[in-house]
Design a protein that fits this description.
By secondary structure, the protein is of the alpha/beta class. It has 2 domains: 151 residues, Quinone Oxidoreductase, Chain A, domain 1; 138 residues, Quinone Oxidoreductase, Chain A, domain 1 (Alpha-Beta Complex). It contains 11 helices and 16 strands. Strands 3, 5, 6, 7, 8, 15 and 16 form a 7-stranded mixed sheet that branches. The protein has a 6-stranded parallel sheet with strand order 11-10-9-12-13-14, sandwiched between helices. A 3-stranded antiparallel sheet has the order 2-1-4, with no helix packed on it.
Length: 328
């Protein structure tokens, strides 16, 4: 089968075409015919920190959607032709294997392209807002460095909860577009200088902050928190994995700092997140309260062009995800 692999070394990512046998599902797994897979910046654009590579090529594509073509031993509740979306290893391929307990049934309302853009970012967002962040109605969420993917998903999920959302971005055009998704306030900046404006707009500071930027924004995020605020670190777009910490602010304001990553999580913990997503967020996709935002769809052979578009200035002001259509 056709597949794309990713080699990460020395701060660069390289894409490789591989022809490999169609995998077979082991006990507890499903084999899906991939119809679409979504691009994620952390996988494709010079990952750092916990996601840095060692030079070994690995199957690319962290989330995909397709129909089941084979069911492994011991799997119940799933059958051939069922439509599923899931976090996967090797979604940039014609077929992919999925642990059955991570598979999510696709609501009829969603097409392949939309479904492929859901599993990774919205499972991360469930960890951010529900499990760890405990975001409540009327609280303020700050998304520092809002961008397609986790940032937009966090905005959509927060509005579902009934929270208020403020975001920072270096694109005024993007902030204007996000008001159609419910953004309450925006701070136009590319610098770590947003805390005063956030505290003014929120009446004292954010209750929960999602830091998409990295180390250069960490200290400013701490300054933007209110009493008993929570700060989540998601990634390092800036490549900075270290920052100073104001221990006095942490101590006096009873702050909570946490990170969200699946790198060292057990399969059981990953399955808990999927179950939480299915309980709290999936119904909103089924009835249309949340609709995935797609910016552009590329064909399977155009993955290098899709990656180049992701890091181009043309994509900077966009709010939707980039999706790869699988081979016919």
């Amino acid at each position: 089968m056709k597949s794309w692999w990713i080699r990460i070394a020395h701060g660069k990512t390289e894409l490789e075409r591989h022809d490999i046998p169609v995998p077979r599902p082991r006990p507890g797994e499903l084999l899906i015919r991939v119809r679409a897979a979504s691009l994620n910046r952390g996988e494709l654009v010079a990952p750092v920190g916990a996601h840095a590579g060692n030079g070994e090529a690995k199957p690319g594509g962290a989330e995909a959607a397709g129909e089941i073509v084979a069911v492994g031993d011991g799997v119940t509740g799933w059958a051939q032709r069922d439509r599923v979306m899931a976090r996967v290893r090797g979604g940039f391929a014609e077929y992919a294997v999925v642990p059955a307990r991570e598979a999510i049934r696709i609501p009829p309302r969603l097409g392949w392209m939309e479904a492929a853009s859901v599993p990774v970012v919205f499972c991360v967002v469930h960890d951010l807002l529900y499990t760890c962040g405990r975001l409540a109605p009327r609280e303020w969420l700050l998304v520092a460095g809002i961008a397609p993917g986790v940032g937009i998903a966090a905005l959509q999920a927060a509005k579902l909860i009934g929270a208020r959302v403020i975001a920072t971005s270096g694109s005024a055009e993007k902030l204007d577009k996000l008001r159609t998704l419910g953004l309450d306030a925006g701070v136009f900046t590319r610098a770590a200088d947003f805390a005063p404006k956030v505290r003014e707009a929120t009446g004292g500071g954010a209750n929960l902050i999602v830091n998409n930027v990295g180390g250069t924004a960490f200290a400013e995020c701490v300054r933007a928190l209110t009493y008993e605020g929570r700060l989540a670190t998601v990634g390092y777009v800036d490549g900075a994995i270290k920052s100073e910490l104001d221990l006095d602010a942490l101590h006096a304001n009873r702050l909570v700092l946490f990170g969200v990553s699946n790198r060292v999580r057990s399969p059981e913990k990953r399955a808990e997140t999927v179950a939480g997503f299915a309980r709290d967020l999936l119904p909103a996709f089924a009835d249309g309260r949340i609709r995935p935002v797609i910016d552009r769809v590329f064909s399977f052979d155009e993955l290098p062009a899709a990656k180049a578009y992701m890091i181009s200035s043309a994509y900077f002001g966009r709010i939707g995800k980039i999706v790869l259509r699988a081979p016919d």
